[in-house]
Amino acid sequence: MKKLILVSLFVGLGFVGSAGFVFAFLVPDVEPTLHQSLDELIPASIPGWQSQKVPLSNTPEGVDRVLDVLDLDDVFSREYIKGDTRVMVYAAYWFPGSEPYSSVAIHNPDSCWVIAGWKIEDRESNRRVSLAGVDLKEHEWGIYSKDGSEAHVMFWHLLGGTPNKYIKHMLWTSSGVDSIKRQFYFIFNMYQMGLNLGQDQLFVRISSNKPFAELERSGELREILDHLEALGLERPAESPASGG
Questions:
Q1: Helices (H), 71-219
Q2: Residue 191 burial (C-beta neighbours within 10 Å; 0-12, 13-18, 19+)
Q3: Buried b (16+ CB within 10 A) or exposed e, 57-91
Q4: What letter would DSSP give residue 241?
């Protein structure tokens, strides 16, 4: 058993070294897609809504621990309330090349929420829909439940503004082999995306206590999506085909 652990450790260290080499010498430099802080891009208030900042943890020590694990460069976390409607907006940002894609992607509701006791009731990956008149970029969608309450969730992992279509493969189970699995995810990223690994990363999660279809009918979802317009969640309009 000790020999197996040592072999696994050396394999993991080898992948870490390979990842460092790739980022240092092979991944091209790219420009960030965001040029302002998230607090500047997402106003704190929406007309007609109450707004409150949501800490990343219940204690200062917990916040420090979360920030250490995520190693993010910017974060926005706020809840918007109108009557009995509650919508949580969480956005986190990483500068180009600051973190491997897999290190960001594994921290999603399928992993972190489930470990915290939530149950996945329904789930769709790479969903492309138009909601409230907005043609959304491909994203992950799910319904999660805990202690008798439900959360309806949409989340995006944008790489240079483009959705990560492979996030469904990047689950974190909090097991002892996670550190090694994450290195394989890095290799998997190289296999899927080549050396296009230095883009900036934006993780956006919108969660609500009501189904998004209900918020769409009430007009509340459009107010939220308009509020987040600067994050680039809407699919760009396709250019009309030129005539022959």
A1: 101-105, 114-115, 178-193, 212-218
A2: exposed
A3: eeeeeeeeebeeebebbbbbebbbebeebebbbbb
A4: P
Look-up of token digits 């809407």: 234
d(Cα 76, Cα 192) in Å, to the nearest integer? 30
- How far apart are the C-alpha atoms of 103 and 170, rounded to whole Å? 9
Cα separation, 236 vs 133, in Å, equals 13
Per-residue pLDDT of the chain (244 residues; tens, 9 = 90+): 444 433 343 444 444 445 555 544 445 577 888 999 999 999 999 999 999 998 876 666 666 777 767 788 999 999 999 999 999 999 999 999 888 887 888 889 988 888 889 999 999 999 999 999 999 999 999 999 999 999 999 999 999 999 998 887 766 655 555 556 666 666 666 655 565 667 899 999 999 999 999 999 999 999 999 999 999 999 987 755 554 4
Query: Distance (Å, rounded) from C-alpha 196 to C-alpha 35?
Result: 20
Write the DSSP symbol of residue 53: E
231 touches 91 (CB < 8 A): yes
What whole-number distance in Å separates Cα of residue 49 and Cα of residue 221? 12
Q: Is the dihedral of CA 191, 197, 199, 202 positive or negative?
A: positive
